[in-house]
Design brief:
This protein has 4 helices and no strands. It is mainly alpha-helical and 112 residues long. The protein has a domain at 28-105.
């Protein structure tokens, strides 16, 4: 069953590759922050489970604290990345609006 999810994820990535490249060029920093948050979240979810299975923690409560803590930190980092994304997006929209208004004032764009 897990292979189905991998195939679906791969297909979605291939079909959206143009959008992913466009996001990378316009929103590189927010995308890196979101990816770092996802890696931290996954390390908490999967990594702490594996470490607990291998009995690397002193007790179950320590494993639970590490696992949930990393998941919360990862989620928080992803929220910061989303806020950065919105900040950059608003700035780009403002620049596009100002450029369009300047072109309209210069007579290059007809009023509609």
């Amino acid at each position: 069953m897990d292979i189905i999810y991998a195939v679906i994820g791969l297909l979605l990535t291939v079909f959206n590759l143009r959008n992913i490249i466009a996001m990378w060029t316009d929103f590189r920093r927010p995308l890196v922050v979101v990816c770092a948050g996802f890696v931290t979240l996954a390390a908490g979810g999967v990594g702490a489970e594996i470490a607990g299975y291998l009995s690397l923690f002193a007790s179950d409560i320590v494993q639970l604290m590490v696992e949930e803590g990393l998941e919360m930190v990862g989620g928080s980092i992803m929220v910061v990345g989303a806020a950065l994304f919105l900040n950059v997006h608003v700035r780009l929209q403002k620049i596009r609006f100002e450029t369009r208004a300047a072109a309209r004032n210069a007579g290059q764009i007809k009023h509609s």
